[in-house]
Design goal:
The complex is a heterodimer of chains A (1003) and B (193).
Chain A: E1 3-4, E2 13-22, E3 25-31, H1 35-41, E4 46-49, E5 56-58, E6 70-73, E7 80-84, E8 94-98, H2 112-115, H3 124-128, H4 133-147, E9 162-174, H5 178-189, E10 194-197, E11 213-214, E12 217-218, H6 219-231, E13 236-239, E14 242-248, E15 252-258, E16 271-283, E17 287-289, E18 302-304, H7 305-315, E19 317-318, E20 323-327, H8 333-341, E21 349-351, H9 359-366, E22 371-373, E23 375-382, E24 386-393, E25 402-405, E26 408-412, E27 415-417, H10 420-424, E28 429-432, E29 437-440, E30 455-457, H11 467-484, E31 497-498, H12 517-520, E32 524-526, E33 531-532, H13 533-541, H14 547-554, H15 567-578, H16 582-585, H17 599-603, H18 620-625, E34 628-633, E35 636-642, H19 649-662, E36 664-668, E37 673-678, H20 682-689, E38 702-708, E39 714-724, E40 727-732, H21 737-751, E41 758-761, E42 766-772, H22 776-783, E43 798-803, E44 806-811, E45 820-826, H23 827-841, E46 846-848, H24 851-860, E47 909-916, E48 927-933, E49 939-951, E50 956-964, E51 973-977, E52 983-989
Parallel strand pairs in A: 2-8, 9-10, 9-16, 10-13, 16-30, 18-26, 20-21, 20-26, 21-22, 36-46
Antiparallel strand pairs in A: 1-19, 2-3, 4-5, 6-7, 6-8, 11-12, 11-31, 14-15, 15-16, 17-27, 23-24, 24-25, 28-29, 32-33, 34-35, 36-42, 37-40, 37-41, 38-39, 39-40, 42-45, 43-44, 44-45, 47-50, 47-52, 48-49, 49-50, 51-52
Helix pairs in contact in A: 5-6, 5-11, 7-8, 8-9, 13-14, 13-15, 19-24, 22-23
Chain B: E1 12-14, E2 18-22, E3 26-31, H1 37-47, E4 57-60, E5 63-69, E6 72-77, H2 82-93, E7 99-102, E8 107-113, H3 116-125, E9 140-145, E10 148-156, E11 159-165, H4 169-179
Antiparallel strand pairs in B: 1-2, 2-8, 3-6, 3-7, 4-5, 5-6, 8-11, 9-10, 10-11
Helix pairs in contact in B: 1-2
The chains are: A alpha+beta (1003), B alpha+beta (193).
């Protein structure tokens, strides 16, 4: 059984107990434990079930590479699935639940998949669920969704807060082991701005665990001294619990800081996403130990040798009383020696190599440990945990030589440098045959904008596995980064690391090398996605020769651990199956993030009220306090209508329309775009932008204009007011302000740079209020300050002055067909004018109205709306707007495009009005039905509805539509599809439904 | 006759840094040929401060002149003085091609103070190097805060003035307050303001 040792534990504080629960069971650990070490200390070997076969799984590793020990952490608003127990720091009150089991972890029904394993080979889903096709959606997928998947998604809104942080540094060092710290020291001494990220809570990496000595002292002492030195440098910043998540173009790096994961419910953000611009990046990310591929290597109790050592040294946890070590290298012997020195039994060391004569094997033998060379594991015995192991000759096919009882197995297949960050941005790898791993190829480093390398790998991540080499490589990397930036590396003594010498490992990709199919089908490569040696071999036989294809077919390396343990072993098996060399097969692509990062960290502050900017007019508070129902218009929220009492939205809209037509309406029009265009060439410029003539507009007058893009399609419209000889004020649609501004600047900067024109966006400078209805003039006269009589201010005039004492510009324009003024005042006075209107307007029957009443009234008048009548494929000619297209102008944007044959085609659908025969409202977007069906068996159409409303003025449904030959078919009745399958008859009419002669606005 | 009001009525938030809505402040956008000596002379004359270098701002009490782009300046003055400034610019620049317009009401202004913490609050939202060595008084930066455009400069050694469009004043205040919420000290700019 796994248990806590009486003494030792470099990282735990036995004086501070932390209580936690696992699947509801109370357990205790110490401060400094990880959840994994605490579970093992409580003899909780079984921590989860595998993805596909629901096999029992235990802790394998001690760090970020852990594939099995994924748990659901926390509950309610702090629940998070798929958290690695090995990187979760223990705290009192932690609650963890195991995943992928039903009904319980110990008794799992899904384990039946395990006995069916030979019916569920690689590519099973692809082969099985192809036919019949409807079965996928209704039978197979729901079934697979039910049975597959790891953690469950949280159901409650996250209680925590997250944030981003932008940092700019000369040198970013990722990894706080001895190589990273030494690199930081070299960079810091040279005066560079340095940021060091370490993903765990502890500095120093593996060196203190592995008994490395630096300058004659324990590595931990050197680490402490170095940290103190770095901390004293103003140009160096050290961040623990911060993982280098991804390296991107131009030295952009994402760091993932887990700020309060270990102290939940404290103030502050839970995670912080560091968005770093680094001129040079040093990846000192260490190495990951590889598993060995033998039958039963997934049973709880089989662990990486380095992890066994970590648990013993760091947390005083032994995974078992009797641990068998199986290895292909010298380094793993450290685990046997460490266990033996802790007073635990190591019945046998199984070394796949023919000879083990290095310093460490000799030391192990010296401690009385039996070493069997040339041997392998034939099979692991046990069900939910290891009970023993059978030995065989590594060179053979698995004939059992002997059986050894044990309760844990420490395995080591050698070490793979963590090349992920090196590779994210294009760094290439080279196969190191002696150490049997891929390591960064310094000749093909990731390059920046200037074509020069910006990433340098350091230490074990660079293949410098032995401590002495690790430290000196860290120093060299730091100095190389310094040099690349033009700093001068400072001298100063470089520490020397010492560790026992090691003989080279022997590559072992299968154990025994001739394992039969029965063994291979129980030999796991990818623990999390349940991919076995036999699956990869099957993929190779079925023609998946590319490693990328084999990966997707078998799902090897596609789980949340992204194959940190399985990739190299898997591609070695693939290479063997294909009869190729490993470097020829290559690796799959390493993509960020290095380990999963929280969605919260990605979102940062963008949630709740600041999820998205909401633009507010100066009158927004009033709208909120007066019953407004809002609708989004761009990033604004405009009042759709103002409900009174128990009114429905429809009733409110009808009331607002009637009241505006009969009395007085008030509209917040502040959101309309207002672009000031000024310069000697302003008239010429606007003549090019608008389809109609603007240069002939007189100061003091307004003109409605249409704006098309260079393909001729209508993109915006609005009223242009000429302020003076050189100055125009262009109103745009609410949603168009920013992009029309950008449109203008683009033409001025890229094409017509010789035009003397400046543009300023004044949208936010003014609050604008529409005063609309038969009583509009009365209200303005009561407010006082300007002569707005018919004589002084004709339709389409504007004038500056003061209204109610507030500096104002009054436009006499109308989008409703009523007598109407729009009054623009400085935004800071907008609310004051609105309040004054509301108060003074009571005697005239004033009611505010929203965007829907605005829409209804403009539709009653047959005015088009950008976004309703237009959709990016409509030209002004489709809408009967020929009157707004100048015939005199030599050119305007869109003119040539509108002359193309398809644009002049008489078969283009044209705008008409519609009146339903039964008075009902046609559904929005409904298609006009034509006879017959098209080649796809769909009903032919002859038009579509662009706007449709109930008109309270006319007491019936009205609509605008684009209809084939529409204007030639006045009076004809056509049919429109309804959503319920029926159709509705409508008569084609003039789109101007109300006050065709414009008498109401000309009073 | 109403008084001009600022967008949020002068709100404040006291967190790891202090966030205060300032203003209303007089602001005038001036576009033209920044290299022309005559243009510079008029800008200096109306602004009442020296001409700023590229990406710089010159401040003197409540008056200031900021470089906004290769053909745009921002003049700052008391709110009431903006109208006269526009008139004076138009008069003195005469026929020289330019655009001068009062934008005082188009903006909201926030003061973010608290030394290193103020730098950290902005660095959470803006992709700008806010280290003391990189961003100093006298500089202006047009950038974004999360999802909206902003510009900021240092009002003194410990505080920043940040301007945004008026309609997003609430969003920007909420952003700054969120970034300044208790426990949010990053500790990155620990070596100085």
């Amino acid at each position: 059984m796994s248990t806590r040792l009486q003494t030792g534990g470099r990282l735990i504080d036995r004086a501070h107990r932390e209580s936690f629960t696992f699947n509801g069971r109370q357990m205790a650990g110490f401060a400094g434990d990880t959840l994994a070490s605490a579970l093992l200390a409580n003899d909780q070997m079984l921590v989860g079930r595998s993805f596909k076969y629901h096999r029992p799984r235990g802790v394998v590793a001690s760090g970020a590479e852990e594939p099995n020990a994924l748990v659901g952490l926390g509950s309610g608003a702090r629940f998070e699935p798929n958290q690695r127990a090995t990187t979760t720091e223990l705290f009192s009150g932690l609650t963890a639940t195991s995943q992928n089991h039903w009904p319980s972890l110990d008794l799992d029904v899904g384990i039946v998949n395990d006995s069916l394993a030979r019916f569920l080979p690689a590519g099973f889903y692809y082969k099985m669920f192809m036919n019949p096709r409807p079965f996928w959606k209704y039978v197979y997928e729901p079934f697979i969704r039910q049975s597959a998947g790891l953690g469950r998604a949280p159901k409650v809104r996250d209680a925590d807060r997250y944030e981003h942080f932008h940092a700019f540094v000369d040198i970013l060092v990722i990894g706080g082991g001895i190589a990273g710290l030494q690199a930081a020291l070299a960079a810091g001494r040279a005066g560079a701005q340095v940021l060091v990220m370490e993903q765990t809570a502890h500095w120093g990496g593996r060196a203190p665990v592995d008994g490395v000595r630096i300058d004659g002292r324990p590595a931990a002492d050197w680490v402490a001294d170095t940290l103190a030195a770095l901390d004293g440098m103003e140009n160096v910043t050290l961040r623990r619990r911060t993982m280098g998540a991804g390296v991107y173009d131009h030295g952009y790096v994402l760091g993932y800081e887990r700020v309060t994961d270990h102290t939940p419910c404290t103030e502050g953000p839970r995670h912080r996403l560091w968005r770093v611009r680094a001129r040079q990046v040093v990846t000192a990310t260490g190495a990951i130990e590889r598993p060995l591929s033998f039958a039963g290597n997934d049973l709880p109790g089989v662990m990486l040798a380095s992890a066994v050592r970590d648990y013993a040294v760091n947390w005083a946890v032994s995974p078992g009383d009797r641990t068998v070590l199986v290895t292909n290298n010298d380094d793993a012997y450290r685990t046997a020696i460490c266990l033996k020195e802790a007073g635990l039994e190591v019945p046998v060391i199984i070394d796949a190599r023919a000879e083990a004569a290095g310093e460490l094997p000799q030391a192990a033998r010296g401690l009385g440990i039996r070493v069997e060379t040339g041997k392998g594991i034939a099979r692991v015995k046990g069900g939910k945990r290891v009970t023993g192991v059978t030995l065989c000759a590594q060179a053979g096919e698995g004939a059992v030589l002997e059986e050894v009882a044990c309760d844990a197995i420490a395995m080591s297949g050698g070490w793979s440098p963590v090349v992920h960050l090196w590779s994210h941005c294009g760094g290439k790898l080279t196969w190191d045959a002696e150490q049997a791993h891929f390591r960064p190829d310094a000749e093909h480093a990731p390059t920046s904008h200037d074509g020069r390398p910006f990433v340098i790998a350091a230490g074990a991540a660079n293949g410098a596995l032995h401590a002495a080499a690790t430290l000196s490589d860290g120093d060299a990397s730091g100095k190389a980064a310094v040099k690349a930036l033009g700093f001068k590396a400072k001298g100063g003594a470089v520490a020397r690391a010492e560790a026992a010498g090691e003989k080279p490992p022997a590559p072992v990709w299968m154990m025994p090398q001739g394992a039969d199919i029965k063994l291979r089908a129980k030999t796991w490569l990818d623990f999390q996605n349940d991919v076995k040696v036999s699956d990869v071999q099957l993929a190779a036989r079925e023609g998946y020769e590319s490693v990328e294809h084999a990966k997707r077919y078998t799902t090897l390396g596609m789980a949340t651990d992204q194959g940190k343990l399985s990739n190299i072993n898997g591609l070695a098996v693939l290479a063997q199956s294909l009869g190729e060399e490993i470097p020829q097969v290559g690796t799959t692509t390493f993509r960020p993030p290095y380990t999963p990062i929280s969605m919260g960290a990605i979102a940062g502050e963008a949630r709740g009220p600041v999820f998205q900017p909401l633009r507010r007019t100066p009158m927004q508070d009033w709208h909120e306090q007066n019953g407004a129902d809002f609708e989004p218009v761009g990033q604004w929220r405009r009042p759709y209508c103002y409900r009174r009492g128990g009114e429905s939205r429809a009733d409110a809209v009808n009331r607002e329309v009637r009241n505006t037509r009969q009395n007085l309406g008030l509209l917040d029009a502040s959101t309309l775009g207002k672009l000031l265009v000024k310069g000697p060439d302003a008239g010429r410029f606007l003549d090019m932008l608008y389809t109609n003539m603007m240069s002939s507009l007189k100061p003091g007058r307004c003109r409605y204009g249409l704006m098309c893009n260079e393909n001729g399609f209508l993109m915006d419209d609005g009223v242009v007011a000429r302020i003076d000889d050189q100055t125009f004020l262009c109103h745009t649609t609410t949603g168009g302000a920013e992009h029309i501004h950008a449109h203008m600047e683009e033409w001025l900067q890229t094409e017509w740079w010789d035009m003397k024109v400046h543009v300023a966006n004044l949208t936010e400078q003014f609050a604008q209020i529409g005063i609309v209805g038969p009583n509009a003039r009365k209200l303005l006269e009561k407010l006082g300050g300007m002569d707005v009589s018919k004589e002084a201010m004709a339709f389409m005039d504007w004038a500056d002055g003061r209204i109610a004492g507030i500096p104002a510009r009054v436009f006499r324009i109308s989008f409703s067909g009523e007598l109407s003024f729009e009054v623009a005042v400085p935004a800071s006075r907008g609310r004051a004018l609105w309040d004054a209107c509301v108060e003074a307007g009571q005697e005239f029957g004033l009611m505010p109205y929203g965007t829907e009443a605005l829409h209804v009234m403009r539709a009653e008048k047959g005015f088009i709306m950008i976004g309703d009548e237009t959709d990016g494929t409509v030209i002004p000619q489709d809408l009967g707007l020929h009157w707004a297209i100048s015939k005199k102008k030599a050119d305007y944007l869109g003119k040539r495009a509108q002359a193309r044959s398809h644009m002049t085609d008489p078969d283009r659908w044209q705008l008409v009005g519609l009146e339903t025969l039964d008075g009902s409202v046609i559904p929005d977007g409904a298609h006009a039905l034509a006879e017959g069906h098209n080649a796809n068996g769909q009903r032919k159409t002859q038009g579509r509805v662009t706007s449709t409303y109930y008109s309270p003025t006319l007491g019936r449904g009205i609509a605008m539509a684009l209809v084939h030959h529409g204007p030639d078919r006045m009076g004809e009745v056509i049919r429109f599809a309804r959503l319920d399958g029926g159709d509705v008859e409508a008569r084609i009419v003039d789109p101007v439904f109300y006050d065709k002669d414009g008498e109401k606005q000309n009073v | 006759m109403s008084e001009p009001t600022n967008a949020l009525g002068g709100v404040r938030y006291d967190g790891i840094a202090m966030i205060e809505e300032a203003g209303p402040r007089g602001m005038v956008t001036l576009r033209g040929d920044l290299d022309a000596p005559a243009f510079q002379k008029v800008a200096i004359g109306v602004a009442g401060v020296a001409f700023p270098a590229r990406r710089a701002i010159v401040l003197d009490g409540d008056r200031g002149l900021a470089w906004m782009s290769p053909d745009e300046l921002l003049l700052m003055m008391p709110y009431e003085a903006a109208g006269d400034a526009v008139a004076a610019l138009g008069e003195r620049l005469g026929d020289a091609h330019h655009l001068a317009v009062d934008v005082s009401d188009a903006r909201a202004v926030f003061r973010v103070s608290g030394g290193a913490a103020a730098r950290e609050v902005l660095a959470k939202l803006c992709p700008v190097d806010l280290s003391p060595a990189a961003f100093e008084p006298g500089q202006i930066r047009r950038t974004r805060a999360a999802q909206v455009p902003v510009a900021f400069w240092m009002a003194d050694d410990d505080s920043f003035d940040l301007v945004c469009f008026r309609s997003v004043a609430r969003y920007v205040f909420d952003l700054l307050s969120t970034a300044a919420a208790p426990g949010g000290t990053v500790g990155y700019f620990r070596h100085g303001a």
